[in-house]
Amino acid sequence: MLSRTRIPLPLQVALAAVAGAGSFVVARVVCTLARDDIHAIPFAAVLLTVVLLFARTLGILFALPIGTAAILAYDWFYLPPFRELSEATYTLLATFLGMAVIVGTVATVTSRRAVAAERARGDMAEVQASLRRLALLIARGEVPQRVFEAVTREVRDHLGSDNATLVRYELDGTTTELACAGRPEPAVPEALIRHVREGGRAFRLDATAAGVPVVVNGRLWGMFSVGSAESQLPDDTEARMSEYTELVATAVADAQSRAELISSRARIVAAADEARRRIERDLHDGAQQRLVALALRLRTATHDGDKPGEVAEIGADLMTVIDELRELSRGIHPAVLSDSGLRPALRALARRSPLPVEVDVRLDGRLPQPVEVGAYYIASEVLTNAVKHAGATVVEISVKIEDDCLHLRVHDDGGGGAKFAGGTGLLGLKDRTEALGGTLDVTSPAGAGTTVTARIPLEPGDGGRDAQAAIG
Q1: In whole angstroms, what is the distance from residue 355 CA to residue 343 CA?
Q2: What confidence tier does 128 reach under pLDDT thresholds 50, 70, 90?
């Protein structure tokens, strides 16, 4: 049908008016020639059939003026009395044709809007079903590659393009094609990749290629591109792709979170194993061997009664071993923490420190054991780092409860420059804190000291308790 072509509507209206005038001329000639030879009723049926064919072929916009002009010609030049063309008849003809064109235009616009609305509802239902399928994949924890492949297929089917491609931007400036649906050719244009990467927003290279960025956690991660070699892409292609890029970003962020969680758990297990090996090594190489040696010396002293000083010396060595065991036990779990809580434990930690430590603990009563243990070891490790690495002269430890969370702050006036990758144990503290459902932040500008701030919920979830148990 002509109404469905790409001819602009104003031009179609003008063509409909011309068609109406032309049909009047043709119908007048036919009616003049046939009025003495054909009966009126069969001729009217033929005329209506011709108008119906025009309506089926060209649409109501053309059928109304053509039919109106044909009926006027039938009335004026086939049925008596016959009319002469005058100014009055031309005015009446123009009025009828104008009215027919107006009614046809209104009917056409209304019909197109109804069709567009119905198509939009259908498209929306398809999009919602597509997004629901993809969301279920992400919710089930499917591997990212399967999600990427599913998304590219859905995008291609939804847009009706020849191909849809997901590309990841690498840190070295290269790109990696993660998934492609449809025809592999033509490949994603380099100019499209470059424009999206540099601008960070959707870009249409031409009528057959468009790209939309994929942003994950505020960083440009990659792009979605669609292409069509044989037809133009719809004007709203970029907007229709945005919902799919958001799902890709969700899938990537979810995969990254799972990877970080797996790495964190691996580091926790490794740290726990290393701690056990260290304790075993210290016991075996230190206290255990010395106790064996002292037992041999006691046996010798028992049989050799003329060395009374030997027994006294052995007693002194035993006290040394006891002190070593006491010092070793502090690294495992201080008794004062279990017996009295976090405030006395931190004060005892400060008294043993070779550096002056200012402790400000604002707590009313005891806290859940995982929270107390986590906060103590964070403070202990940060204090150890300050003594060994920071060159500090004073350390400040403050603890308070705010918004149902324990807030721990440890600050030293050392040289700064501490970071998670610096081998100072901060990464392990971060893992420990996150295992409790909290967060750990480090501020350490060069030459301005180091501030470690931990925020731990007072009611860690099951995952936090399980991770804390794994830590030991």
Answers
A1: 19
A2: confident
Residue for token pair 């053509």: 66
Question: Do residues 392 and 412 lie in contact, with contact meaning Cβ atoms separated by under 8 Å?
Answer: yes
Q: Which is more confidently placed, 397 or 157?
A: 397
Q: Supply the pLDDT for residue 463.
A: 39
pLDDT bucket at 324, cuts 50 / 70 / 90: low
Give this prediction's pTM.
0.40
SS3 for the chain is CHHHCCCCHHHHHHHHHHHHHHHHHHHHHHHHHHCCCCCHHHHHHHHHHHHHHHHHHHCHHHHHHHHHHHHHHHHHHCCCCCCCCCHHHHHHHHHHHHHHHHHHHHHHHHHHHHHHHHHHHHHHHHHHHHHHHHHHHHHCCCCHHHHHHHHHHHHHHHHCCCEEEEEEECCCCCEEEEEEEECCCCCCCHHHHHHHHHHCCCEEEECCEEEEEEEECCEEEEEEEEECCCCCCCCCHHHHHHHHHHHHHHHHHHHHHHHHHHHHHHHHHHHHHHHHHHHHHHHHHHHHHHHHHHHHHHHHHHHCCCCHHHHHHHHHHHHHHHHHHHHHHHHHCCHHHHHHCHHHHHHHHHHHCCCCEEEEEECCCCCCHHHHHHHHHHHHHHHHHHHHHHCCCCEEEEEEEECCEEEEEEEECCCCCCCHHHCCCHHHHHHHHHHCCCEEEEECCCCCCEEEEEEEECCCCHHHHHHHHHHC
Alpha-carbon distance of 179 to 334, in angstroms, equals 54
CA distances from residue 192 to 28, 223, 304 in whole angstroms, order as listed: 60, 10, 93
Mean pLDDT of 244-251: 75
Distance in angstroms (rounded) separating the CA atoms of residues 224 and 214: 7
CA distance 398 to 343: 10
CA dist 118 → 112, 115, 124, 212, 421 (Å): 10, 5, 10, 27, 58
For the chain, the C-alpha Rg in angstroms (whole number) is: 43
